[in-house]
Amino acid sequence: MTIPTPHISATSKDQIAKTVLMPGDPLRAKFIADNFLENVEQFNETRGMLGYTGYYKGKRVSVMGSGMGIPSSMIYYNELFNFYDVDCIIRVGTAGSMQEDVKLHDIVIATSACSESSINDNLFGNIHFSSTPDFELLMKAYNKSIDLGYTTHCGQVHSSDQFYSEMEPKVFENLRKYGILCVEMESYGLFMAARKHGKKGLGIFTISDSLIENVADSAENRQKSYTNMMELALEVAED
After folding, report:
1. Which terminus, N or C, of the chain has the lesser number of Cβ atoms within 10 Å?
2. Which residues are catalytic?
3. Cis ω for the linkage preceding 6 (within 30 of 0)
4. Is the pLDDT at 199 greater than 80, yes or no?
């Protein structure tokens, strides 16, 4: 495949920075570009999946939506890594807390992701492959979050294949018992794509709702208010 790809309209690899921040919502990508980046140029609007490149404190960074779920996001992960020579993708998204001490607006940095997704079927035989981020990038993000004074949790997340899941109560309780911090929908695919292409992946989330306390943020806050997560990702982005 050559560029532009079927899903990304950038005609040159130089239009996209080596690090790309990827929220699921393309309007969150636009919010980051409008509020954090300078000298911004748009490189994608195909299928409404907005993508921009600009500068953050002199550092060249791109931001682009991925859509919801592993199937949608992996299209973009693979095309960015494989055809546009992107070195690092940082997922910035929302998540639902699965633990009492992980509160609304806290930040979670994923140390690994589990999923019921079948994307690994037939790749590793009877081995259940663990999907993990880049360790050095993970440590850089955690240390930076402490410097910035953010309430941050590091641990395993669940990348669900369904937003409206009918998970059995016993399964939910076992996930909690074994320390799953929160549920989101894309990181398992990101970490797999990064490992496949020998690149870097990281997942940073803001808790937008709690499955324990039954509270949730508004749609507007989900799109525009999680600036701590956005700033953290931009601070650790590699030029």
Report:
1. N
2. 209
3. no
4. yes
